[in-house]
Amino acid sequence: MQQLASYIDYTALRPFLEQQAFQTHLQEARHHAFASVCIPPYLVPQAAEYLAGTSVKVGTVVGFPLGYISLHEKLSELIRLIDDGADELDFVMNISAFKSQQYDYVRTEIQQLTTVAHQARRVVKCILETAYLDEDEVKRACDLCAEARVDFVKTSTGFAPEGAHIRTVYQMRRWLPDTVGVKASGGIRTYEQAMAFLEAGATRIGTSALLTEVHHEVE
Q1: Which of 44, 48, 72, 176 is positioned for an S-S bond with 84, CB 3.0–4.6 A?
Q2: What are the transmembrane regions (predicted)?
Q3: Of residues 90, 125, 136, 151, which has the active-site annotation?
């Protein structure tokens, strides 16, 4: 299998992230050739400059972590982040609207955000926050994402009571077409966990805690 590093979105979204820790994060991502970094929006220009010319993509978040800002605000945020240099954009689905069965609103939101990102040739990921959804709701959300042709469906923000579960990722992989990836995130801290999620069908792993494991694998 391809080295684990190439599947990792190396994440630094804690609210108390300091500049020195951020610089170290970028250095580690470049050294290990992770798929991307996933960082706070205001740091995107700095990351884009530092990672220019490398294979590491600059990822960030939109409508994070609760997802219930308006579609207009999400679109404005996404467009600004593209202008700032973001390559990959992880947006939080409007969970409040979804749980209220406002499916047309959610469909429009996912479609419009995906369309704008794709017009700019950017990768877009829809975060479901599966901790708050039952199995039928996860399937319905996956159907909406597939209809909009998002690039990835992501399990979690990492801020909910629970993160990714193997069974959920396995089901998402079954429900989504091959053209849509699955990103497992939230609570993935060991090599064994990461490999289990990949075997279940994940094609990206969001984590901030795998550096030592990846280092040993590379060696």
Answers
A1: 44
A2: none
A3: 90
